[in-house]
Amino acid sequence: MDPQGGNHRTQARYFAGLAVPDGVALTEAQEELARAVLGVVLLAGLPPYSLEAAADGEESGVGLAPVPERGRALRVLWRQDATAVLHLPAGLVHAQQAAMHQALRTILSAHRFSFEDGPAAEAPVVLGLTCPSAP
Fold this sequence. Notes:
By secondary structure, the protein is an alpha+beta fold. Helices cover 42% and strands 19% of the residues. It has a four-stranded antiparallel sheet with strand order 1-2-4-3.
């Protein structure tokens, strides 16, 4: 998970294009937001999803998906290991997914990201960084 020598900003830039589904392009604004989101994800110690790692069988991590009707927004989702999903009861898989989405929302909120309204257990749609409040 550390192809860039420990620098989380460089790593976030590296993973930004790999964390989206294959063949999906991000707008420039989404690419910038992806780097910011993944920088926070890496600081929190969570693995970003990577198409390269998935090809080698490591399929879990924080993935990103553009929101078609929102040119700047990104859906941030936890991608569970496919093998584990096959062997766990569906209720447990859904509970784990919901817990990770809540955790992602909490972590990103602490770093001043704004979200589209939605249930806490669903993958959050990140709209951007909020401006720091003026003193």
